[in-house]
Amino acid sequence: GPAASFMLNGVIQSLRTGLIPGNRNADNIGRELEANEYALYLSKSIQTTGIKAGLLKSFGFGQVGGELLVVHPDYLLAALTKEQLDKYNGKLQKRSSKSERYWQDTLVGNHPFVQVKSHPPFTAEQEKSVYLNPLARAKRDLKSGEYRF
């Protein structure tokens, strides 16, 4: 949960910048760990020329663990054909434009950055059918700007 999301943010930052953060508290690494040739225990950050992938493990509360492999987007995008890449870049440009417009509207006071809902998108009568239908989807009401079933 929260710990994994915090670590994921760090992995993504490392993929973007090539910087591997060190653990400033790593000043007393056990001698028995020196036998592990491929394990690295950094006490200071290292700037690399680039990172291809990152692996994180999180063992959260309730003894529920998770493991994530995060691959640099350049490697994923390199697997696309030119047509697929052009289509992706077109969608990316649209998303970026919408994101920039939203941010500008926030800065000029048209709406808050986080818009907190005051009620669910369904009525009390619809609640049971919405919860029990895995295909139920709310649609945006263009007039009110709210989502409804």
Description of the molecule:
This protein is an alpha+beta fold. The protein is built from four helices and six strands. It has helices spanning 2-17, 73-77, 82-107, 127-132, and strands spanning 19-20, 46-47, 53-59, 65-71, 139-140, 147-148. The chain has a two-stranded antiparallel sheet with strand order 1-2. Strands 3-4 form a two-stranded antiparallel ribbon.
The gist of it:
With 149 residues, the protein is of the alpha+beta class.
Q: What characteristics describe this protein?
A:
extended, alpha+beta, 149 residues, acyltransferase, two-stranded antiparallel ribbon, 4 helices
List the helices and strands and how they pair.
Layout: H1 2-17, E1 19-20, E2 46-47, E3 53-59, E4 65-71, H2 73-77, H3 82-107, H4 127-132, E5 139-140, E6 147-148
Antiparallel strand pairs: 1-2, 3-4, 5-6
Kindly name the structural category. alpha+beta
The tally of beta strands, per DSSP, is 6
What fraction of the residues are assigned to beta strands by DSSP? 5-15%
User: What is the 3D form?
Assistant: extended
What is the arithmetic mean of pLDDT? Answer: 90
Strand order of the largest sheet: 1-2
Unreliably modeled segments:
none
Chain oligomer state: single chain
Helix content: 25-40%
Largest sheet: 2 strands, antiparallel
Distance between the termini: 29 Å
Spatial extent as radius of gyration: 22 Å
H/E element sequence: HEEEEHHHEE
Q: Helix segment count?
A: 4
Organism: Coemansia linderi
Keywords: Acyltransferase, Transferase
Protein name: Fatty acid synthase alpha subunit Lsd1
Enzyme class: transferase
